[in-house]
Amino acid sequence: MMSVLENVSEYWFHNYYRVLVVKTGSSYLVSVDVYRKGWIWSIDDRECVCNGEYCLLYHRVSREELASIDGLEDVIDRVVEAFIVGVKARDRLETVNVRYRIEGSSPLKYSDIEKLFYASWSLTKTNPPS
To answer: What 3 state SS string does 17-83 have?
Structure first.
C-alpha cells in the first residue's frame, strides 16, 4: 500500500514496517523501519537529551557493508550515504531504522524500494518479519 503527499511516499510491508521516501530536488531520503533488540555497531554520531539518558545513535554504513548485501546491485550506485539508527533509553538499546540518501533524477521504482527494505534487514543482521 502506498500513500503520497506531494514529495513524500509511504510504503507499508508486513503490517507494521514502512519505508518512507522523501524526494528533495534530485535526491531521495529513504527511511526504512526495522527492529533489532540491542546495538552491535560502532557509534559514529549521537544526539542525546536528559544528560545522555535518551539518545539517537548513528552508524555510518560503509560501501563495503552495502556491497556485501545481495539484491542491491540495481540501486547501490545511487546510494550516496546510509546510516543505521538506534535508540538508547536509559540502559536499553534498540536498532530501529536504516536511512539512505540516494542521488539521481530517475524515480525510485517500487522494486528499488522493496530491495532497500529487505537489504535493511540484512544490514541489521536480522530476519525480516514474516
So the answer is: EEEEEEEECCEEEEEEEEEEECCCCCCCEEEEECCCCEEEEEEECCHHHHHCCCCCCCCHHHEEEEE
% of the chain with per-residue pLDDT over 90: 77
Query: Which H or E run includes 92?
Result: strand 92-103
DSSP annotation of 129 reads P
Element holding 4 (H helix, E strand): strand 2-5
Per-domain residue ranges of the chain: 2-34+59-83+98-123
Are 94 and 124 spatial neighbours (Cβ–Cβ below 8 Å)?
A: no
Q: Distance between CA atoms of 80 and 54, rounded to whole angstroms? A: 28
Which residues are 29's β-sheet partners?
A: 22, 101
Which residues, including other chains, have CB under 8 Å from residue 61's CB and lie 6 or more apart?
81, 82, 83, 84, 98, 123
Residue count (the chain): 130
pLDDT in tens, 4-34: 456 899 999 988 899 999 998 889 999 999 9
